[in-house]
């Protein structure tokens, strides 16, 4: 049996089924212990020609054989069959329910855990909790109750009957049992540790396999299949070794139990035979005694299996408890209300942010405002903190009080889901589900109509691609959307966000994989469809954000400048340098056939020298 704060409640919850199971088990055990008495009647009847039934001595006739032995035997077998069926249904059925319920609670908790948790814990390890560990818990719950009570009830009843027949013989038989129990307890502790190691090794293997399958394209492109195979072999070998160690200990325990059973049978045969020889026992009684002992062989085996299962169950429950105890660190404050009728204004006010596991501030004193309905571009070098800015807006991480406002309300004073509801997001990795294109586009909206989906696809300029697919909107995408091109994936993600039609639209580097013409179409569509609604567009190419109402220029986690493209170009040398560099890169790319590499390098250097005479943007920003 297994106990723990996430399991105990199920004993109570399933109490009626478990009690019925226990009652059936009791009936089966009592019935089973009637069989050795019938053995005695048969042996003594055949040997002595007489049998003692309920204190009455009867001559052993066919009628006595039928009435007092065969008929009771039929009833016993019937009771045992029905009882065994019942306890199986009750115990194992409850265990299946426990697994399903616990899985649901785990999933519910997992979905509330922050991004941080998923950065530290890999998907493979989490999956092994949902498969291996939950299976172990189920096994341990159902089999555990059965074995514990069966060992207890059948063992005690059989011992009582044996004790009544001859207490000395029973005492002798109990000595190996006591030794066995001591050894089993010590081995149980070792087995718990080994099982934990085994599960850990399995998780590592799952992590590795999961990551490999996800990154198969990169592995193939770098021709690293063999390297990965070698690494997999190493992990697999470790997994195998720990499994072998565990199996060795489990087998040793099994062998010890068998040794115990055999040694007790030797004791019974030796001492019991001597009692028969001395006339204190007759042959029928010795067979009856052996019959009782045979009845407790299973409980004894059950004890060893119980030790083994409990050890595994404890280890798996520890791992599940770790998940369930993982704190939900991004959560609503008590009593917060919802963001009502959001308009979409945003303000970052002296926000400094460091990732929970980070060792430096990724954002430093960030301040800028976005008016409701404004179209704002966020640019900056890679690693400048652009994604972090929108992650904080989406409340993926906690922010300090008084640093981030939506519609003038501190994001900490309103519910997280209402802030997220106010946003539509196109993430940098453009994650798509392995579902139909229609379902992917309609993901953010309950009961989206085909027309709405089609409209969103048109706005994202992906409609023509979709209708070209054989199954159209019903085309099922492979895992993570691998059956569509990078640009199509981006545009399907944009369509998904556009369909939500939220007051704030966030696009994180979302048009990087499309050509300039398509980019222009999407941006023009955004301008019309999003009129009056806030749009934040993160981009690397300045040309993408040039036409926005405002641009926030980030440098090393600081807001270097805020303003229109023209204003920034003339007031912020760093921005100008970036613009000039990108223009030069575009030009050199266009005429790359004609221009040599050294010429490009010289050209790229030119604006840097030109900007040396210009002042750095003052105060970093020109706030609106
Ligand atoms: N979960 C995290 N934990 C710790 N540090 C992080 C985490 N995510 C990002 N960082 C760090 O924060 C910094 C800013 O990252 P961010 O993704 O915001 O940059 P970015 O401007 O969006 O870059 P890019 O243009 O390449 O997408 C980087 O130095 C990055 O290494």
Automatic annotation (TrEMBL):
Q: Residue limits of the ABC transmembrane type-1 domain?
A: 19-312
Q: Which CDD domains match?
A: ABC_6TM_TmrB_like (cd18541)
- Where is the stretch described as Disordered? 587-624
> Which InterPro entries would you find in this protein's record?
AAA+_ATPase (IPR003593), ABC1_TM_dom (IPR011527), ABC1_TM_sf (IPR036640), ABC_transporter-like_ATP-bd (IPR003439), ABC_transporter-like_CS (IPR017871), P-loop_NTPase (IPR027417), Type_1_exporter (IPR039421)
**Gene Ontology, cellular component aspect:** plasma membrane
Organism in which the protein naturally occurs: Gallintestinimicrobium propionicum
Q: What are the ABC transporter domain coordinates in residue numbering?
A: 346-581
Which terms does the record give in the GO molecular function aspect?
A: ABC-type oligopeptide transporter activity; ATP binding; ATP hydrolysis activity
Assign the protein's first listed, main location to one coarse class.
Answer: membrane
Membrane-related topology note: Multi-pass membrane protein
Name of the protein in its database record: ABC transporter ATP-binding protein/permease
The listed locations are: Cell membrane
Write out the biased-composition intervals (Basic and acidic residues). Answer: 606-624
- Mind telling me which residue stretches traverse the membrane in this protein? 64-87, 145-163, 169-190, 255-277
Recite the UniProt keywords alphabetically: ATP-binding, Cell membrane, Membrane, Nucleotide-binding, Transmembrane, Transmembrane helix, Transport
């Amino acid at each position: 049996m297994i106990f723990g704060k996430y399991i105990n409640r199920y004993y109570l919850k399933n109490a009626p089924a478990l009690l019925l199971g226990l009652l059936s088990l009791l009936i089966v055990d009592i019935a089973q212990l009637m069989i050795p008495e019938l053995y005695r009647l048969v042996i003594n009847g055949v040997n002595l020609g007489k049998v003692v039934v309920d204190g009455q001595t009867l001559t052993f006739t066919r009628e006595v054989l039928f009435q007092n032995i065969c008929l009771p035997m039929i009833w016993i077998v019937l009771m045992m069959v029905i009882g065994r069926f019942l306890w199986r249904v009750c115990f194992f059925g409850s265990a299946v329910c426990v697994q399903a319920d616990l899985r649901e609670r785990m999933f519910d908790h997992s979905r509330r855990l922050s991004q941080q948790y998923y950065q530290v814990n890999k998907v493979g390890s989490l999956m092994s909790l949902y498969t291996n560990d939950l299976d172990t818990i189920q096994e341990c719950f159902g089999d555990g109750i059965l074995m514990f009570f069966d060992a207890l009830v059948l063992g005690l009843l059989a011992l009582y009957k044996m004790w009544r027949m001859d207490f000395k013989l029973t005492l002798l038989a109990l000595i190996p049992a006591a030794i066995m129990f001591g050894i089993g307890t010590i081995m149980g502790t070792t087995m718990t540790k080994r099982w934990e190691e085994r599960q850990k090794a399995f998780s590592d293997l799952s992590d590795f396999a999961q990551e490999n399958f996800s990154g198969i394209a990169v592995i193939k492109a770098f021709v690293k299949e063999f390297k990965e195979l070698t690494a997999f072999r190493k992990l697999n070998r470790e997994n195998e070794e720990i499994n072998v160690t565990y199996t060795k200990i489990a087998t040793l325990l099994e062998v010890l139990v068998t040794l115990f059973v055999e040694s007790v049978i030797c004791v019974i045969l030796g001492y019991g035979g001597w009692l028969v020889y001395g006339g204190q026992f007759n042959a029928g009684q010795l067979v009856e005694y052996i019959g009782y002992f045979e009845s407790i062989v299973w409980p004894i085996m059950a004890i060893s299996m119980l030790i083994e299962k409990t050890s595994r169950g404890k280890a798996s429950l520890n791992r599940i408890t770790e998940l369930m105890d993982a704190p939900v660190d991004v959560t609503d404050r008590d009593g917060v209300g919802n963001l009502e009728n959001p308009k979409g204004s945003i303000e970052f006010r002296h926000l400094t942010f460091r990732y929970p596991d980070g060792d430096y501030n990724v954002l430093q004193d960030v301040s800028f405002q976005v008016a409701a309905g404004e179209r704002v571009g966020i640019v900056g070098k890679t690693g400048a903190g652009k994604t972090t800015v929108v992650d904080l807006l989406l409340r993926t991480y906690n922010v300090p009080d008084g640093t981030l406002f939506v519609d003038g309300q501190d994001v900490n004073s309103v519910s997280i889901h209402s802030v997220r509801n106010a946003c539509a997001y196109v993430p940098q990795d453009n994650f798509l589900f392995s579902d139909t294109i229609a379902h992917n586009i309609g993901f953010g909206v309950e009961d989206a109509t085909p027309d709405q989906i089609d409209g969103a696809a048109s706005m994202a300029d992906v409609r023509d691609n979709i209708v070209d697919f054989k199954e159209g909107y019903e085309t099922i995408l492979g895992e993570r959307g691998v059956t569509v091109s990078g640009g199509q994936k981006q545009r399907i993600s944009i369509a998904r966000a556009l369909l939500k039609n939220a007051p704030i639209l966030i696009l994180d580097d979302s048009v990087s994989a499309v050509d300039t013409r398509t980019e222009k179409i999407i941006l023009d569509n955004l301008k019309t469809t999003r009129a009056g609604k806030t749009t934040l567009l993160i981009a690397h190419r300045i040309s993408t954000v040039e036409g926005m109402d405002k641009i926030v220029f980030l440098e090393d986690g600081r807001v270097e400048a805020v303003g229109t493209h023209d204003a920034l170009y003339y007031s912020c040398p760093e921005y100008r340098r970036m613009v000039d560099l990108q223009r030069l890169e575009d030009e050199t790319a266009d005429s790359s056939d004609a221009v040599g590499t050294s010429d490009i390098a010289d050209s790229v250097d030119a604006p840097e020298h030109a900007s040396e005479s210009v002042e750095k943007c003052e105060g970093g920003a020109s706030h609106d």
